[in-house]
Amino acid sequence: MDKTVPNASLALESLLFDGMTIMSGGFGLTGNPETLIREIHGRGVADLTIISNNAGADGFGLWTLLKSRQVKKMISSYVGENKLFEQQYLSGELELELNPQGTLAERIRAGGAGIPAFYTKTGVGTVVAEGKPVEVFEGEEYVRETWLRADLAIVKAWRADPAGNLMFRKTARNFNPTMATAAKVTVAEVEEIVPMGTFDPDCIHTPGIYVDRVMISTINEKRVEKVTTRLRRDA
To answer: Which of 223, 212, 206, 219 is nearest to 159 (CA)?
Structure first.
């Protein structure tokens, strides 16, 4: 089955609606589905719940959806240096469900695996556990967390074949493969589409069964969120 589509507009055709939940891959500015985010911004859908590690950085990524007031709620683990994110949350304009990063990753993985809930020590005795069941296992307290699932997952991969098998490059892998399993529909933007049979099966990070549509990304800026440097030591 050829799952390729020619552009972002067709990749998201009939998938967007007000009030939907979207998973968006990436970690900081690495592995962000930039092209699909821009298309969602242009469509003007509103009251979105976005599940993402963070909300981009000033002027880039999911920040554009915050600026246009299209996001109602963020489920994430890092506010970071996104001043707009901080301002909207502190003013009460934006709902925030803050998760420990490992818990966020596991909630997404559980959603893809069909596991409604699990227990973790992370967050016990903190505000993270407020309102959640806590049980004792082998003398230790664990807080119950629930799965995360979405109407749509948008992910960024390095390469794909027409069947939707995906390969990610280095740290751009991050949340992308897990999110691809946890949504009703997954759309992938990639830097390159290769012929069927190119991939060694052992090198496929996300099998095509989890991917519904694939398109070539037109935005591949790969910005560095914060550049840090040091003097090179003499050899």
So the answer is: 206
> DSSP 3-state assignment of 193?
strand
Is the torsion defined by CA of 175, 181, 184, 185 positive or negative?
Answer: positive
In the chain the domains, ranked by start, together with CATH numbers, are 8-115+147-216 (3.40.1080.10)
Q: What single-letter amino acid sits at 92?
A: G
Chain centre distance of CA 114: 18
| Residue 143 per-residue DSSP state | E
Residue 105 predicted with pLDDT over 70: yes
Residue with tokens 């496929």: 204
Find the range with the poorest average confidence among 52-56, 103-107, 112-116. Answer: 52-56
Are 184 and 151 contacting, i.e. CB atoms less than 8 angstroms apart? yes
Percent of the chain with pLDDT over 70: 100
Contacts (Cβ under 8 Å, ≥6 apart) of 91? none
Whole-structure pTM value: 0.93
